[in-house]
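To whoever is covering the structure queue this week,

Two jobs came back overnight. Logging them here so there's a record in the thread.

Job A:
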Amino acid sequence: MYRGYLLDTQVMVWVTNAPNRIGNQAMKAIETRPVYFSSVSVAELGFKRSIGKFEMHPEVAESWINVGIKPLNFDLQAAVAFARFPASQVPDPMDRQIMATAAANNLILITSDRKILAQRFDWVLDATT
């Protein structure tokens, strides 16, 4: 049995700026709690901001905590799980780290990433549904 939901970086951006992009099923899951975000998402926001892909500042994570979304670190268990997700299937290492965080913590990952969704893991939920 899964113990909650991990929101990937894009979903966290939507939660903050465009909640209407999140589908009904995913929104119901988010509203049920417990809901987490990965420390990797904060790093990803910082990286993407530095290369001009996102305007969002990584300090937005404080607002996520304030609304009850809990931070979850990329720890040793997640690092071990990371090896289960080959780059040939999901090339972005940050995406694989977020996947590994969900897997290591027995969480359902809510994502809109097509490469992750294409893997058809039973613990991944399409954020647009």
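Job B:
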Amino acid sequence: MRKAMKKSHILTAMVVLFSVIVSASLKAQTPTEWPDLPLLTIETVDGVMPTATKVFPPEGCVGEGILSEHVPGRLVMTLKGETLYDSGDYVKGESGVRIKIRGNSTGANLTQHPYKLKLSKKADLLQLGNEHKSKDFALLSMYTWNKVMKNEECNILLNTGLALCRALNFPWTPNTRPVNVVINGKYQGLYHLIETVERADTRIKTDKTGFVIENDAYWWKEGETYFRTEHQKANTYMGYTFKYPDGDDITEEQLADIKNYMEKVETAVYSNAGASDLIDYDSFAHWILAHDILGSYDAAGSNMFLYKENGTTEDSKLKMATLWDFDSAFASDLDGSRQHYSYLFFYLSLFQDKNFVRTYLDLYKEKIAAVYPYVENSLKEFKEKYGEAFEKSMELHRAVYANECKNSLDEQIDDVLTHLKERFAKLQTLTAELEHTTAIEGCVDKSDNRIVNRTSILGVDFTGVDVNRLPVGIYIEKRADGTIRKVLNK
């Protein structure tokens, strides 16, 4: 017993000593001693750290979110000791930065908080050129939990997803770069510095009469400007929130006009009468194809940003903007992403429209061959540009967050590309099924490959129910050979 206690005391002392050494080492570092990644140093007014309060949904709503306030301060970005940017001390509207904790579940639960940065003056933080100057950026947490990845995490899912969007030629894909961050003298870890979803000529381009909205499960949070369509109220827990116009600036007339337009869109989509005169089928096909390639598990949390370039002309159609959240990439065990089976957005109905299915299949055939080489090359370029500095920064990160950044960059790239290859096989199954009818009455139940499970998209079990007694709807069937497919009972 005494030997065990003595050993325990020794281990405790060693852990404490190691923590002291790491802390002292980090405090002793100067910008010139950091890895060759940009270092963001933020000093807030009076040393106040950004904080957030968890908020929980009212009855009938879902999600765990946060409420947070901006904290003013100064931001300096350096690389190898050279100052790349200095916001100056905070003076409202003139200089400095405001920072706050962002996100919903990530902001509420991650040890390494994600942040939103609001500069007083536009700047080119990502060094892309003056046309990319903006006041709005974000610092996304490096840690991404994902059950199917090695050690259940991956730090480059964001980079992978954005590379995929570029391979598919999205009109705008956010630019990002890895950075180290210090706030009020304390190292906060390795982050993704990224452009946020905003209306701008180099981001989501609309004129002043257009809009950018999100189909948002967190519309209920205090301070949000939102509207809910009749379909949302009757069938979902979602609502629409605003990226543009700003919620503080939008007029009642603008809000009513946008709501009325979305009511018109949803009536067309959900009546299965065809909506191609109101929404851009090519844009919507790009968005869902990207999620299908990634095998995204999350549906409600997949950041559904929509925009209309012009709010006054009939030829301006509703479009889908960039993908944003890649946390659940490769986690779906279905042929497509979960959006195919979710009642929370348009795709369940759109895939009953032959014109939309044709648009999707044509896009798939046009783009799919180039996707893997493009993503592979993008990750190779990331390694060439940041590899050694990224590895060293992950070491620093682990000193603060012991259970994060456990996989080397090479391991992560191999992991991602392996999963990406596996997704192509599932996509071949999905697209083959879309090429022919999937109506239940056309299905033959062979004895050697019988249906072993059938559930509705709402999760109700209909296994063993005679097909002639099934309610009209869409079902997920699993057969004896392990294949899973979506079938429609008309």
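Note for Job B: Confidence is low (pLDDT under 50) at residues 1-32, 438-447.

Please reply-all if you pick these up so we don't duplicate work.
Q.
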